[in-house]
Amino acid sequence: MSGEPEYPPRRAMPDDVRARMRSAVREGIAKPRRTARVWYAAAAAVVLVASGVAAATQSLRQQGADPGPDPAAGGRNLDVGLATSSLDRCWAAVRAAGKTDRVAPREEWVPHFTDVMLDVSVVAATSAGKPMFCETTLTTVTLSDPNAVPTYVPGTRTGLLLQSATGLIGGVLDPALPGAGLSFQAEDSGGGDAVEASPLTHQFVSFTWTDPAKTRLSVYEPAGATTASLPPAPAPLLSAVDRPIAPADRTSPAGRALGACLSGAADAVSDVAGYRPGVLLDKDGYQVVLGRLGDRSLACTTLPDPRRPGRMKMRVYQDQFELPPEQPRTIPMQPLGGVEDGGDRANARTPFAGTRLPSTAVTVTCDFGAGLTSTSDVVDGTFVVFVPKEVNDPFPRGVHVQARDAKGTVVFAGAL
Fold this sequence. Notes:
Keywords: Membrane, Transmembrane, Transmembrane helix. This protein is α+β, with helices and mostly antiparallel strands and about 425 residues long. The protein has helices at about 15-30, 40-50, 55-60, 80-95, 255-265, and strands at about 110-115, 120-125, 130-135, 140-145, 160-165, 170, 180-185, 190-195, 205, 215-220, 225-230, 240, 275-285, 285-295, 295-305, 310-320, 330, 350-355, 365, 375, 385, 400-405, 410-415. Helix content is about 15%, strand content about 30%. A 5-stranded antiparallel sheet has the order 1-2-3-4-12. The protein has a 4-stranded antiparallel sheet with strand order 8-7-10-11. Strands 13-14-15-16 form a 4-stranded antiparallel sheet, covered by helices on one side. About 45% of the residues are buried.
């Protein structure tokens, strides 16, 4: 297949190299890309190249485990503690749903590898020898049906067994196609992943972060000679909320904007109903709204879609960098209405958004240099302004931020 990228195998990477790559991602997010997703493709590239579990490592170790490659899993990580707790949650959901007759007893579930990204965890396991995937989020468990037979790609034994609401996919790879690649396309954005399957069970997983109903999946051979669409996965055995949280506001202006943006985007977000609305910027025909859920933050943008007159285009940007939870940071976004969106550079506006400001902050001033400043309200620690048009670089570095409380006292000052 011509024109398809070839993705390298995952491998261990020194910490200093990983740090430089993360820095490059932050810089490279400003570079226009026609089909690649903004941070998803860039950040996923760092995660995948850096052994496929760079983002997972911190989360796994926080749970008291020391993840490491399991030879039986083909180098994939198996965090026994995470696997046990996740499979226990899935088993409890099976019992609550009255479906214990549909799966083997819990003691016959064998985990083979684990993966984590943005607080979504997945365990590739077998149930009485049958491949199965258990996904857990903050609120929800999803379990594939171990008795389901995938619809294979014609002429192969490659097929999906799970495609969850978070965009996670799990399947089995034809052992005759080691090193195959996966590509996904959702509206006008897309990305890819190297398919690293267990040599024992041939199972693989990938985080696409796209809405399953809006995503086209394809698999291609290592040499890129052929490509084929992946048929949809069978229905899961169950997907249930086992740790409910109160739904967040969707009635205020910011709440309505956040709900409409998240539901309209092709991007997938886990535990979406729990995100509290943050600050809302509605200006020049563009809308940016921020949201928070625990330690997680995101920004969602809405703008007219030049490729589809009369329709709006939504996109989600999640805060995925490994920084201390309390450290203020930006959420990088690409220009709105620019070349990437089918518009032109002259009309593009670039949001400068931040999160994790002190809870007492009510206003923030962003200094872009040369006397150019912008001010924003602070809501739930979040803020967003447009980079002034006079700033030549739409992605300025070292922007100084000063946040004040209701009495005018500076509660944070520093460069983001």
